[in-house]
Amino acid sequence: MSAPAQSLPPTMRAWARSRRGPPRSTMKLADLPTPSDPTGTTSPDVLIRVSHVALQFNSEFFLSVLPSIPFVGSNTYIPELEFSGEIVGAGNSAPLEVRDKGTRVVAFQTIPGMVLGYGVLAEYVRLPGAQVAPLPESVDYAQASGVIGAGCTALKLLRKSGLQSGQRVLVNGASGSVGSVLVQLAKLKGAYVVGVASGPNEAMVRGLGADEFVDYRAHPGSLPQFLKETYGGTPFDFFMDCVGTQDLFEGSPGYVKTGGAVLNIGAVEGIVTTVLNLLSNLFLPIWLGGVPRRYIFFSSPPLRDDAMYLAQLLGEGKLKVPVDSVFDMKDLLASYERVGTKRARGKVVIKVRSDQY
């Protein structure tokens, strides 16, 4: 779909980090040069007017620890990875389906790109077309902004496991950004899904399609024992941990089949502890106390084909991305505080365009 030509402003608003440290003391809303328009060139890039940006749960950590990289990165460090918006310019080598001005899209920056400071929390973003997927007209921009990161990770979990119709899967963190999408995709595969989250999120998790719900807060210090007593007779084929809780892996022989597997993408116990647990879980022999269940840990960069598939599911009404809250561009610091509570029910989103809802 083509839209009338519009002139681009010379500057744009963007959140930029002045130095390494927590967002409240290092981030500011600045006027920065608008990226150049690739229209009329042989470039594969597209220029996108950003509508909404979905925040990552670990953004505040990276802002606090990642240094600016001189000479190779951006002069101004802009955070965040995934967003929605519309095409305002495209090079002649960009993919045909995202080349027309006015095309609604979802898109993502690569992790190396964000590490170098080329994040997406800005009014305009220029990216290779291979990182952009068209968005159906029926899909809300706010919901769509958070589908790529969580959705691509959930798809990778399903592929790694080889989950088949009729199998049983336990999802820990079922109300989180990845877990909420994972529950839905597992149900689309025909699996029987038990979701674990806090009690106030039960209606949400069941509404996503979970067959059963477990409130972890109702079993403080004894959740592995509860799972063993409740599901030991009908163990799971796979336990997919979106939180990263070590005691649940250690107790998994009580509720995961001998030939099953535990797949983990979480690091709630901290980076150092998670790395130590990872080494133990992968390499400690059973005769030295290792857990007799297959353990898989991975991170997964987004892929354009997956992004296109997820956008299609959104358009068909077969998938929804729970949105916890939407903050105005000026309220970024408050939005990071919401993410930091670890109690968000779905994605926390920044509305970049003041005229877009």
From TrEMBL:
InterPro entries in alphabetical order: ADH-like_C (IPR013149), ER (IPR020843), GroES-like_sf (IPR011032), NAD(P)-bd_dom_sf (IPR036291), YIM1/Zinc_Alcohol_DH_Fams (IPR050700)
Region of interest called Disordered, as start-end residue ranges on this chain: 1-41
Record Pfam families: ADH_zinc_N (PF00107)
Domain Enoyl reductase (ER): 25-350
PANTHER family the UniProt entry points to: ALCOHOL DEHYDROGENASE RELATED (PTHR11695), RETICULON-4-INTERACTING PROTEIN 1, MITOCHONDRIAL (PTHR11695:SF294)
Protein name, as recorded: Enoyl reductase (ER) domain-containing protein
Species, as recorded: Sporothrix eucalyptigena
